[in-house]
């Protein structure tokens, strides 16, 4: 049913470090160290007797794909990287307390790509085809107390071109060991909602919260019968950010039957993008008054409202969603991305004006949602990119040659209902999530669905591949599947809107798909915003995937009923590549190293609420080679201008300024030049054409300033590290720059840099230069800079000491002279001064 006004007012919760696994029961602890791995389909590797002594010892998360050589013989859809079949094994002896009578052990996987099969001591626990789903198995039936146990995982990514983008391969997210009593709080079993009207919430008055507590009984019938007289209760506390309990209640519970309770939060503080205030909800399960299980998760109070005429309101304030789409990888790190790296990237996106993230096109790692909760970013969670039929997977470059057709459609009918339900149950406790998406671009015209409307309507913004093809699947099936999946979402969480990202809007308008969801996403179809608003006045419309051009943003900015857009993309990503040697897509605001590109600064000038000023340059008189309609013969005003000030003396140079100020002043060596800038109406960019002279070029606009300098020859390396102490899962991100004798970045440099770690305890995860066309292995300790820069990722080495020593390539005898716990890391390049940093390991 299309709703004229979809209104939400809810409380939701996010996972904290104590229970990052999001299991919401038991004692969960990470189980990432001591794993052994081989990239081969070894016969009988599930057997406890199998000899794995020669396998590689590693620490999870692990993506084997990104460590393999790229090759033009592999699919461009996966960034020319391989899949394959791999095995993981973990030897362990359970703690006596964990295998005591009345307790159970579980293993929880956040994500394994893909077709995983899990064994304990040779016994099959289960299998999961999805590489994005989180899942859990009970280890207890096959545990051997006091003995060596072997957990084995077979990962089958042999159908390696099964996605339109790079997915990674292996156990690429965290694994958790969960210890719990037989009777415990249920997996993802809790749900919360706010029942107080919006106005009272905005006024900071007391808010009523409804909390549902779910429990599970793992005992057999005989054990349960013996314990019939046990009285179970649940204590629910709401704790504020200062640690004070602000609301508490106790209730009797019947095991296996959900129970709802109401609490009142006095003087409630809201979760917002500016102040993402998080409470914590602590649930304790009592058996005859004794605590047996507990869960503690953060809680965010906020209201969501959607209107076909006014768009979207957060906490009663109508706003524009300035979103970006993100895939799972981070360049050299593949899809095994540490929390610190995600935090840096998300904070950088927010600093340039982004306020929302679309999880494209699958559930992401739990840590990403946790960070969005704490940073203050809205999230559109998404279930799938493919339904019952395969999409085209390009093998020789995006939209080139003959595509492949491997994909997730193979297990759609058997697993999609569970995959969607598990996504909602797992993620519904995050205050950042404001939309559930049931699918992306499943309605491509003739890919494979078709409809008679394709014969007559010529306003399609996606490839149609011919007119109506009656021999292909009827597009009306899309609407029926959408109804089914939307019902699953609402059956679990009716507090948020359901959406879908439509590619063939004209065709889908002839089906039940738009009516099956609450909010309708239009991919690259700004031309239909006005027409469809008139034709379907009760439809809530937004841009679910959009280009970076000004016209796409104006379609949001200048239309009250369009609440936002999601740019493709926020960060460059592996896969969906052009012809070899491109390893990925460079459509992002940030590059593969997480650094802001000129396109990112341009977006900041449109979206940021703080003063923005960036200047870039290029030779004047360059023709417009990009596809700005109607401007092919005009001189280009670029969104991609680099911060370079090295030209021939007297050469005519175009200087562009990306700013949200009305005017700007340009100075060369302290003297004003260029006069009043010209504003390009198509892009909003200010620009000057001036004659080049070496020195310092400075621009001042609206209280912000930007400066670029003429650089000399490469002279030295400079290393800037974001942290100097490593403990646990910390990652130090080191920015390496090639500079001249005056310390100016030489942004035309491409010197090769070598990283040498002196001392045990730190390992190099890889070095990333952001160059989309550099296909060399960056997990090795050598990498060329690009644009004069690269980023090195260093982490505490959690492997056993003998394995770490065997597998590290550059230990240095000089490390023997370092103080205890101190590690020295040197970055060198021929003919350049070396840069060093010092790290301490906790």
Low-confidence stretches: 1-20, 626-633, 806-810
CA-atom Rg in angstroms: 28 Å
Give the strand content: 25-35%
- Biggest sheet overview: 8 strands, parallel, barrel
Total number of helical segments?
Answer: 12
Count of DSSP E strands?
49
Instruction: Please give the order of strands in the largest beta sheet.
Output: 23-24-25-26-27-28-29-30
Quaternary state reads: single chain
Could you provide a short overview of the structure?
The protein is mostly beta strands and 842 residues long.
Mind explaining what this structure looks like?
It is a single chain. The protein is mainly beta. 13% of the residues lie in helices and 34% in strands. It is built from 12 helices and 49 strands. The strands form 11 sheets. The chain has an 8-stranded parallel barrel with strand order 23-24-25-26-27-28-29-30, surrounded by 4 helices. Strands 1, 16, 17, 19, 20, 21 and 22 form a 7-stranded antiparallel β-sheet that branches. Helix 3 crosses helix 4 (366-375) and helix 5 runs parallel beside helix 6 (476-492).
Give the arrangement of secondary structure elements:
Elements: E1 6-13, E2 27-30, E3 35-38, E4 56-58, E5 84-92, E6 103-109, E7 116-120, E8 123-128, E9 135-138, E10 149-157, E11 175-181, E12 183-185, E13 191-194, H1 198-202, E14 207-213, E15 215-217, H2 221-226, E16 232-239, E17 245-252, E18 259-265, E19 279-287, E20 290-307, E21 311-314, E22 317-319, E23 321-326, H3 339-351, E24 356-359, H4 366-375, E25 378-382, H5 412-427, E26 433-440, H6 476-492, E27 497-502, H7 505-508, H8 513-516, E28 519-523, H9 529-535, E29 540-546, H10 550-557, E30 562-567, E31 573-574, E32 584-585, H11 598-607, E33 613-619, E34 652-659, E35 665-668, E36 671-672, E37 678-679, E38 686-691, E39 696-701, E40 704-709, E41 716-721, E42 725-726, E43 731-739, E44 752-758, E45 762-768, E46 782-784, E47 789-796, H12 801-807, E48 822-828, E49 835-841
Parallel strand pairs: 23-24, 23-30, 24-25, 25-26, 26-27, 27-28, 28-29, 29-30, 42-49
Antiparallel strand pairs: 1-20, 2-11, 3-4, 3-5, 5-10, 6-9, 6-11, 7-8, 7-10, 12-15, 13-14, 14-18, 16-17, 16-19, 19-20, 20-21, 21-22, 31-32, 33-34, 34-38, 35-36, 35-39, 37-38, 39-40, 41-43, 43-47, 44-46, 44-48, 45-47, 48-49
